[in-house]
Amino acid sequence: MSGPSYPVPAAGSGAPPVSPEELLDWADRLLTSPVEGLGNLWPRACALVIRLALEQSLDRYWTRVLPEAAECGMRQQLLLLPLYAGSDAAADAGLDAASLAREAWRGLARAAHHHVYELAPTAEELRRWHTAVSRLTVLLAAEPNQVMGSR
Predict the structure, then answer these.
(1) Three-point CA angle 37, 22, 91, nearest 5°
(2) Is the residue at 11 inside a domain?
(3) Per residue in 40-57, pLDDT tens?
(4) Is the N or the C terminus of the chain less surrounded, counting Cβ atoms within 10 Å?
(5) Is 73 inside a domain boundary?
(6) 75 is a domain residue
(7) What CA dihedral angle connects 15, 16, 21 and 27, to 10 degrees?
């Protein structure tokens, strides 16, 4: 069984960084095509790739909007997000960036910490997180550089 190849740059190789969009494409391939050598590890691998895409989307957003926040931990970033990415139009459409990030992070953090007695995430859960992080990536890229209170 031969699956698609995934060009992952080696650490310290000087290769350009992988974007959140590319990571989400790789996660989508993991969800739709078997990858040789992964066996039953593909759900956790997929969760880790989606989680990395979420982290990179937030890093990219904070670097643009509030560079100091990029140095904070994920919990602090998620607490700050409603203050900076709170869009009334997005919230009305059910696309609140802070809620998407928080829910995706909860599931992905749990899925990434493997315990022998826990089942791997299902394809349905992975698809839901993938969709949430994809929507979040688009929302954060479109967010203006404003603090909610100054609008």
Answers:
(1) 120
(2) no
(3) 889 999 999 999 999 999
(4) N
(5) yes
(6) yes
(7) 10
**108, 51 Cβ separation under 8 angstroms:** yes
Residue 43 belongs to what H/E stretch?
A: helix 42-65
Per-residue pLDDT at 96 exceeds 90? no
Question: DSSP code of 13?
Answer: S
CA nearest 102: which of 136, 127, 68?
A: 136
Q: Is residue 88 part of a domain?
A: yes
Residue 93 sits at φ, ψ, to 5 deg, of: -85, 5
Q: Which two tokens stand for residue 115?
A: 């315990």
Residues 65-92: what's their mean pLDDT? 83
Assess contact for 44 and 114: CB atoms under 8 A.
Answer: yes
Q: What is the largest CA-CA distance in the chain?
A: 56
Residue range(s) defining the domain that contains residue 137: 20-145
Residues whose CB falls within 8 Å of the CB of residue 23, separated by 6 or more in sequence, listed in order:
49, 50, 52, 53, 56
Residue 5 confidence class, pLDDT cut points 50, 70, 90:
very low
Residue the block writes with tokens 């982290």: 55
Contact at 8 Å (CB) between 53 and 23?
yes
